Task: inverse folding
């Protein structure tokens, strides 16, 4: 009798596990639909993206919006926490960005609108974000951040890395939070990097973070690579840094967006 009971419990647990795996697979497919299916094709730039969720679904989110034929908007966001709850909030960010279409050329207004949406829903989930509006005809950009890791601009002509780290409050924290636009002059050869903290907070063998300075050193040392090979090499470097096998579990979601100004 004990053997029969144990077998029944085993079968029930296996059925529950199979059901959970099916639900997570469905959640993964749904989340894939909110991410861009293809990279933007705007004259004057080359774009590369790497998106690596920690689990089946992620709290990281990014999107591209076409303002017009020569202007491109890019949003990157990181929801606090992981898994399905964070993924649901990322879906809300997607919907919120679509509702800000009239402000896509004004990053501060976009973040303010997203903050209003999240505060109104009162989910309790906080989000860091960065949004940039690129104008390749005028070779300029506007950037605004919400407690997000600083945007990095590598000026290849001078070998200099500029940090754009002026940030407002986390999205979803305070209804009337203010965000500001930072103007950026673009030069041919510039490389823009937007990323989530899964890169700079990758943990090494000794327990310390990959860090912002090591990230900058990598950018300078590999500036000769085009966007896609650069992104691949960075991921390989992070794997080597962590001491884990490629494809093994990570401590956080990871998103990287590279824009090369041509």
Result:
């Amino acid at each position: 009798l004990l053997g029969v009971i144990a077998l029944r419990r085993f079968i029930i647990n296996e059925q529950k596990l199979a059901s959970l795996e099916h639900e997570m697979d469905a959640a993964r497919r749904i989340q894939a639909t909110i991410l861009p299916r293809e990279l933007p094709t705007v004259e004057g730039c080359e774009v590369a993206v790497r998106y690596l969720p920690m689990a089946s679904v992620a709290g990281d989110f990014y999107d591209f919006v076409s303002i017009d034929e020569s202007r491109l908007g890019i949003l990157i966001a990181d929801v606090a926490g992981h898994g399905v709850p964070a993924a649901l909030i990322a879906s809300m960010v997607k919907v919120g960005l679509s509702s800000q279409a009239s402000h896509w050329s004004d990053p501060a207004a976009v973040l303010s609108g997203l903050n209003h949406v999240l505060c109104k829903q009162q989910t309790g989930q906080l989000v860091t974000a960065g949004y940039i509006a690129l104008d390749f005809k005028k070779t300029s950009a506007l950037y605004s951040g919400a407690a997000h890791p600083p945007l990095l601009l590598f000026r290849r002509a001078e070998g200099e890395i500029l940090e754009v780290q002026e940030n407002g409050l986390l999205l979803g924290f305070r209804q009337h939070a203010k965000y500001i636009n930072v103007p950026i002059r673009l030069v041919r050869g510039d490389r823009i990097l937007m990323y989530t903290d899964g890169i700079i907070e990758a943990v090494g063998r000794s327990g310390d973070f990959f860090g912002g300075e090591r990230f900058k050193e990598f950018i300078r040392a590999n500036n000769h690579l085009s966007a896609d090979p650069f992104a691949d090499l960075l991921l390989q470097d992070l794997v080597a840094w962590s001491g884990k096998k490629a494809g093994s579990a990570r401590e956080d979601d990871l998103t990287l967006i590279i824009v090369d100004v041509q």
Summary: The mean pLDDT is 88. The two ends are 74 Å apart (CA to CA). The first helix runs from residue 2 to 34. The helical segments are 2-34, 83-98, 107-121, 197-200, 212-221, 227-242.
